[in-house]
Amino acid sequence: MPRPYPPQFRRRALDLVESGRTLRDVAASLGIAESALHRWRQRDLVDRGLKLGPSSSESAELASAHARIRDLEEEVKILRKAAAAVEAVVPPKERFRLVAELHGDGVRVVRACLMLGVSRSGYYDWASRAPSARAIRHAWLGDQIAAIHAASHGTYGRLRVHAELVHAGGVVVGHNTVGLLMRRAQLAGLPTHRRGKRSRREITVTDLVRRDFHRTGPNQLWVTDITEHPTREGKLYCCVVIDTYSRRVVGWAIDSRQRADLATNALGMAIDSRTPSPGTIIHGDHGPQFTSWAFTERARRAGLLPSLGTVGDPYDNAVVESFWGRMQTELLNRRRWNTRVELANAIFEYIEGFHNRRRRHSALGWNNPVEFENTTRQQPTAPHR
Description:
Layout: H1 7-18, H2 23-30, H3 34-47, H4 56-89, H5 92-104, H6 109-116, H7 120-128, H8 133-151, H9 158-168, H10 175-184, E1 221-230, E2 235-243, E3 248-255, H11 260-274, E4 281-284, H12 288-291, H13 293-301, E5 305-308, H14 318-330, H15 340-355, H16 369-376
Parallel strand pairs: 1-4, 4-5
Antiparallel strand pairs: 1-2, 2-3
InterPro entries: Homeodomain-like_sf (IPR009057), HTH-like_dom (IPR025948), Integrase_cat-core (IPR001584), RNaseH-like_sf (IPR012337), RNaseH_sf (IPR036397), Transpos_IS3 (IPR048020), Transposase_8 (IPR002514), Transposase_IS3/IS150/IS904 (IPR050900)
Function: Involved in the transposition of the insertion sequence.
GO molecular function: DNA binding; transposase activity
């Protein structure tokens, strides 16, 4: 089953339609079905209030409500199982106390009794019964403990409260009882502050590629980098993730600022569209976007192996540097760009409409990346190098 197009792709495709081009022209340029582009446009009109129908947010809310109902039904089943287990190990008096707590939170007594496996008559009999000597003593101890805790400005824990009761008040009580009553009253002492040893952050990611970009199958080695280009509004930044096997751009992100989320969004798009198996290498440079915690953590969660080339050496990331050179020559430097949106749409169409689907590469036997992957998909691939 083909994976859905990411939201960035759909938005940029609709921007091309709104610029005055026909649906057929844009669909043919991007290699997508004209009917799909038509559906995206109709949904966009509904979302903007230009056409009647449920908006994307309303559809999402309905789907969320259905999911919530399903979760609640599962929670009820789990609670019933848990109640059956509690009934076997928790004495009725403790369950009566739980019913009282639930009733105080707004739960009906009949429902609480049903879920906890006790009778309503038994609960009401327990609730109307005079407190035992133990309950009276615990109530008195609870007041003493609360006063001691408050006098310590909330700093005393179980052991110090116990010491104050025994040595200052002459009260005979065990420290476990003090701990139980403090937990019931939600009282706790301040934790001891232990100063951690500061250490200078060091980058421990090594170069796993060493200028060998040849791979025998898809999703074995990805390379990534960021470029910038000026417009009359200011600079625009683009980050790409390229599969070195087919030279296909599998992830991209475009933004007006060069931050860590620019690289993380491009990597996330690649992961979502390709679902790589663990062991795929993601190779970049020592820029702060690729050494940031967000980027490396996103890569590790997906099972990717981060790799960094040496500082200031373009040959350590030659595949993506070659891609930037081609895009500069074939698109960016051919005209002066007025707005960031204009340039962003052009970059999107160059990547998805031209580079991935039409541009022939000598390294691929003069096939385009999509064509190359389709023709080699049935062939067995060697394990990761």
